[in-house]
Amino acid sequence: MVRFSDIIKNNLTKKQKAEKSEKAEKQSSSFRLSDLEELRLSRDSKPAPIKAAVPKPKKETEEIRKIYLSFQTYINEVRTSILDNKSFKIDSVLILINKIINTPDMINELYQSSIHFSHKEDYAISRSINTLVYALKIGQGLEYSKAQLLELGLAALLYDVGMFKIPESIIKKNGELTGSEVTLIRKHPEIGRDILSAFKENYPWLSRVAYEHHERENGQGYPRGIKGDEICEYAKITGMVDTYEAMIHSRPHRKAITQHVSVKELIWSKNLMFSPKIIKVFIKKISIYPIGSYVRLNNRAVGMVIHTNEENPIKPAVKLLFNGKGKAVTEEIIIKLSENPLLCITETISIDEI
């Protein structure tokens, strides 16, 4: 049997242990709109260069795809076990997450590829995987140690297992949910906590993240209405990513919101719903125009964001889909806005508009 402690012994150096201790002592700072302005940079600042959008080698792309499919298979197995009231193991997925953390740039590669590999027919599966990837990016932004990233990644993958116990007739219902249906759905954090309590001896944080991922900074979350430092930081990260994932995907009872609008709503929640510290890191790592966003440029051309720019979030790299006259672009043309000062994004558009 693979033990979590055995994995982190190999990952955690003395320096990382010191960093972990220092991280635990840091206080959360208030998020201000000026922080967002700092990310945008001034007009007079020289745009920060970003990596060229070079197509990935087929072998490398296939490896990322296999990893994504491995996560899909695992979550499907977990769901089947839960529905059959059987136990499941986490050894295999623990090794997989550890491999990602220990492979340079793989977290970012998974993030960039997730829009292509998502399991569109089964949102419950893709949501768990995307939450894992987004959470790890935020963990990197918070300068988590490898041990902390492993803990966060495992929790972010399994945080929503309680939803597997909610009848699909409710989850996939068209139209407004009844009061009793809403009440049942709101029980999934408690259900998830009970399921993951089976791992409490070796992985005590798993059940806590599942139980607290719908708690909010201002105390207006559920199931207990706790707030601020009472909420586990892993649950704060997972809860924010879970909210973002829910906003950008269509449900039977509501349409998706574009990524850009979703990010703006998270920003404007400020200190109310989510931790200011985590919001700030989310903006930097996921960006104002996340990968997969469809945008229109000031020359009327339409494209999709394929690379973000952490130093200047409003200047990502865009793959052109239609030129300024509305004609489809057949060849691959990638514009790095940081190197084209006369071009800028004027608006985001939905897939339906495309």
Q: Would you mind describing this structure in some detail?
A:
- With 354 residues, the chain is an alpha+beta fold.
- 51% of the residues lie in helices and 7% in strands.
- The protein contains 15 helices and five strands.
- Strands 4-3-2-1-5 form a five-stranded antiparallel sheet, covered by helices on one side.
Residue fraction in strands: 5-15%
The run of helices and strands is HHHHHHHHHHHHHHHEEEEE
Q: Helical content, roughly?
A: 40-55%
Rg, Å, rounded? 21 Å
> Termini distance?
50 Å
Question: What number is the mean pLDDT?
Answer: 82
Helical stretch tally: 15
Number of domains: 2
CATH architecture designation of the largest domain: Orthogonal Bundle
Major beta sheet summary: 5 strands, antiparallel
User: CATH class of the largest domain, anyone?
Assistant: Mainly Alpha
| Helical/strand content category | alpha+beta
> What is the H level of CATH, i.e. the homologous superfamily of the largest domain?
Hypothetical protein af1432
Shape: globular
Count of individual beta strands: 5
**Widest β-sheet, arrangement of strands:** 4-3-2-1-5
